[in-house]
Amino acid sequence: MRCCGLVVLLFGCLSAHASNLEESLRKTTASSLRDSCDIELLESKLEVARALDSRADDLVKWLEEHPQGDPDFTLVKLGPIYLKERNVPLEPEYKWTEIWKDWANVIARYRAIQTQPVDQRWITLAEDVQWLVSNDYRRLVDERNFGLDEQSPDYLQEASAAVDSCLANPQCSRPEWSPRTAEFLAENRIYSDILGSEQSRKAIEILKRRIQIDLKTRYNFWRMSNISRVDANTWSVPMYTHEFAENRDEIAQRIMRMWKSATEQVIIRWVDDVAPENFRFIADLSVGARPGTSYPNHTVTLTNEMFATTIAHEFGHVLGFRDRYFEIWDAPRCGYRSRANGADIMSRSRSGTVVQYHWDTLRREYQ
Question: Which domain holds residue 188?
Fold first, then answer.
């Protein structure tokens, strides 16, 4: 998603409604979805957020005075930003892997450095806290479902069919689904809260709407009206360079180098007008900003020192593909585990590639 003018530049974009970390956390306190650890750790979380907010200028200054040299990467100029180009490309990992971040860990790290001057430990802490606060806000305020992963669509499809069957029968008050799907629904906080201990037709109707929302926003392909199929193996996408007008050839090469196989290819057709349906490239130079694609705004945001291959990932969203990484809330640990498939460009952009299911999907969606 595009960064939203956050006051504290280091923290990139937390939410369209937030101006700093502490404010974002305070907005989560009214949510009925809070778990016990959200309540128990609130004061400590707020303390860490206040400490980082108060050091915002010092953190930015430290970053400016200590440019981060990474021997694995070369910085490449692209218009107003720099890209991190890996010197030796990573080999795709054909497996799902996880990383963890939790509040207890960052609170303990803060306690260890709270009286120390700003250094790399504070920078790393700020990055992790930003990620946690952003996820907390989306989970508790935006009510995004953080209980879904790559296996969830099968359970959601079964649950949806069972709900439809039940609603078609006026006498039905409890859908019939498999034990594993029943377990999946019970373990998911949003679904279990909807169903409650006493299932009713009203609850089933609400569950149906929620499942439809989750399938649509997390898994379903978003078909674009302006993408055309040139021939059996070629698709054409109109794009507007906007802030990167002088770099259109390099951007096109970076994208089409990834979105090309021995037989298939996607080509970019540059346009000079900002038609509502055409995506445009914009830059966000905020320290810590995240690259992203906005469907409502039709923008692709490129950020300073983003991974060069992430441009091809964001272009995947322009084609209509959803993210294939999953951030999953773990209440006992009061944190999140992030799952990604290292072979898929839409899952882990720094190592993934365009694989066969991408081409199969394009053929199906764009006749």
Answer: 152-218
